[in-house]
Amino acid sequence: MASIFPQCDERLLDAIQKASGAIIVSHKNPDGDAISSTLAMDAILRTMGKRTEILNDGPFLRSDIKRFEGLFRKEASDSFISSSPLVIVVDCSTPDRPGDAFSKIKDLERIVIDHHSSGLPFTTEGMSYIVPQSPSTTLCINEVRKALGIALTEEIAYFLYFGFATDSGFYHFLSEKTAPDALEAAASFCRAGVSPYDVYDELHDGRKLSDIKDMAAVIQSAEPVLGGAFLFAYQDASMKDGKLSDGVYASLLETEGIKGVVLFKDKEGSVEIGFRSKHKSGIDVGKAAAMLGGGGHMHASGATIPGTVDNARKRLLEILSGFLQ
Ligand SMILES: [Mn+2]
Fold first, then answer.
1. Which residues does 154 contact at the CB level (< 8 Å), separation at least 6?
2. What is the dihedral angle through the alpha carbons of 173, 175, 181, 183, rounded to the nearest 10 degrees?
């Protein structure tokens, strides 16, 4: 079977080789793939002897990435910007995803490395490496690394594995199409010294009991809608842990007979909507999110809309009933 990863464009590789330095940025409200993609790219560029700055708008709400927060800047330094570094945008499908971190560096030359299926091209031709089939952005970065001829150090391998592990739900979102390439890459990371045991613990340990109880409350709120095709669940504005939703989705998706789960997070004035659909449901929740100005993947996506949870709920009932016809 052919690889899911196409060749990297020479123009993108050239831009990296020629750059004296680079600013690496990912999306606001980051997850493990966003942060580890940034850190992997940073380690690769430092190996190449290039200066770097790494940016993220935050907030670092998820317990698995909190320990990296201190490494990131909110915006690039003026002196570095004046040296015309290359901007490397990772794990972002639209130019608004990096948030304020992007405002000062919009006009610099940039490349985009990503794995989202929806979104707009926001760089020039040949300057992106976007593989929607890839289970994580870190696996796309691994392809760029190989094309650049940079050896896999333990540090680089660790970050590449971290993003893969979190975005693949520790392997269970892999299909027969994506698994062969992904698991070959994972094996190479482990040969470079990565321990899956340790990464699993880092991803799943260290949460507060109150956050786990919040997760239980969100699960408790679940209601079947549209004849039981979907579960809607509701997260209070007071609940802060960014990883609550992972556990909520994992539990609720086990419900017999449903096609998917929608999680409404009240942000007081706006509502963040998260979508998950079962692998065999045939429901493309990336499309549902795109109808609301968001984006994502076939089985996992999100959007933020203004207004109340009540209105968001009504809007979603309309949209999803269209998907069921
Ligand atoms: Mn990702």
1. 192, 193, 194
2. 50
For residue 227, the CA-to-ligand 1 centroid distance in Å is 32
Q: What is the pLDDT of residue 325?
A: 83
From ligand 1's centre to the CA of 134, what distance in Å? 9
Interval 125-136: pLDDT, tens: 999 999 999 999
Query: Domains in the chain, start-ordered, CATH in brackets?
Result: 10-203 (3.90.1640.10), 209-323 (3.10.310.30)
Quote the ligand 1 centre to 136 CA distance (angstroms). Answer: 5
Parallel, antiparallel or unpaired: strands 260-266 and 270-277: antiparallel
pTM, to two decimals: 0.90
Q: Regarding beta strands 270-277 and 128-130, do their DSSP bridges make them parallel or antiparallel, or are they unpaired?
A: unpaired
Please name which of 125, 47, 128 lies closest in space to residue 87, comparing C-alpha atoms: 128
| pLDDT of res. 205 | 84
CA of 137 to the centre of ligand 1 (A): 5
The reply to whether omega before 59 is within 30° of 0 (cis) is yes
Kindly report the backbone phi and psi dihedral angles of residue 235, in degrees, each rounded to the nearest multiple of 5, phi listed first. Answer: -110, 125
Q: Nearest Cα to 218, choosing from 247, 255, 242, 260? A: 247
| Average pLDDT by stretches of 10, the chain with 325 residues | 94 98 96 97 98 97 93 97 97 92 94 86 92 97 98 98 96 93 98 97 88 96 98 93 87 97 96 95 94 91 96 97 92
